[in-house]
């Protein structure tokens, strides 16, 4: 019988490597008082932080724990959008139970919906893995036992240990991250600049972005973290103020993440040539870097900024309200969550543009600029009746994107076929809600109607919906479109020209030889609610697991279902 006070058994992935038998903890800081790194060798870091640096070490630890019957949980760093039945879709922050981690790229896991494969690089393992043995004896009608007081004391000690585990993870991952940034700057960028015949200044700016600025910023951030870290009693550390002090500085990641898709494309082009593959591998070996390709290293800042809110959320969970750092940790969590949300929002936009491009290719008689020249997201769609000043009605299907409203007409025989009929510039339009009855300007009786009136000319468009609720959705969608445009401008949310061209090129190739039809149209759900920015998730399903520019973040191939079903204990084959 388990004592009532022992309501939870916890184990820590951190404790597998970071705590020695005599209670000793991790290595000393990587930065000195001046903010510069001490000369730690790769071997020193591996000995101090094997979980973070040694390839495959984390997998072995996970599978050992799973084999022992422990429950291993991970949290999603960002959304994973998939239409593949063998893949596990999830949203940023979702919890996934890891069931198999023998393959380094794809793990087998379970969420509330099903069991399936998911990309390992999309998740962060929880530091404290808790397994509830009994909620409470009282839940079964049992009387409190006399060990309850001792159990409460043990539970308090466990919470201190759990907070210690999270603090240690934050500190050690930060130190290893600094090591990775240093390797990129000194191992790759420095060598590339020496070889002017292979790289232009513009190419290096595209590939590496502002990662040197990130390196400089992170060194200062780690220096302040080290000052607030209590080595003797880590659970008493007060690191929340560090995140708040530097929260504006983390905005530097926005530029890097915006540049990252272009970096992937540029690097992919270079890697088609053997001399560049050999050059980057030689740089890695010369710098004694871990066995990860350059694309993996360049992804680390994107992953890092998304890990912060998950780490702080777990830290907040094990920080009591009486703790001196509670309020700062809570504020830091909200601040870093907003930063990471912007990153996830951009990724979500990138995942939607391929389908928007395929939608345009399916439209018969498209005229003018590509939809992606100005838009990157479908806000709303549906049927409306457009009325001319002469009183003539036209039944049309409208698609509201950011910046523009596209009008199409359905084919009389093939209802899945759409003909292009025009578009309106939403930046130049003003929405006017109309009451039911006679419109004085048009001298017409209208119901469920609204207008779009040009701000710079006498152009006016009158629309009528079938039902009052349909009109309400269109009014809300138009308001949301304006809000989205403003938010995108404020946070510099832009899709690169190269990415737009690539999406259209892929769509045109895919559409060759196929009959027209909009079965792949990115229709939004009829009752789709547009949430505030920090609550947004994927609104447009995509048939590809990951946008091509983020292919470096997601493995290109997942293990066969056969090997999981019939040979779980054998390493997966490629």
TrEMBL record:
Gene Ontology cellular component terms for the protein in this record: cytoplasm; ruffle membrane
Biological processes per GO annotation: filopodium assembly
Subcellular location: Cell projection, Ruffle membrane; Cytoplasm
Major place of residence: membrane
One Pfam family, short name: RhoGEF
Taxonomic superkingdom: Eukaryota
Sorted UniProt keywords: Cell membrane, Cell projection, Cytoplasm, Guanine-nucleotide releasing factor, Membrane, SH3 domain
Domain PH residue range list: 377-483
Region called Disordered, residue ranges: 134-160
Residues of the SH3 domain: 69-128
GO MF term (any one): guanyl-nucleotide exchange factor activity
Keyword Cell division: no
InterPro entries attached to this UniProt entry: DBL_dom_sf (IPR035899), DH_dom (IPR000219), PH-like_dom_sf (IPR011993), PH_domain (IPR001849), SH3-like_dom_sf (IPR036028), SH3_domain (IPR001452), SOS1_NGEF_PH (IPR055251)
Membrane-spanning segments: none
Residue ranges annotated for the DH domain, each copy included: 162-346
Protein name: Spermatosis associated 13
Organism: Microcebus murinus
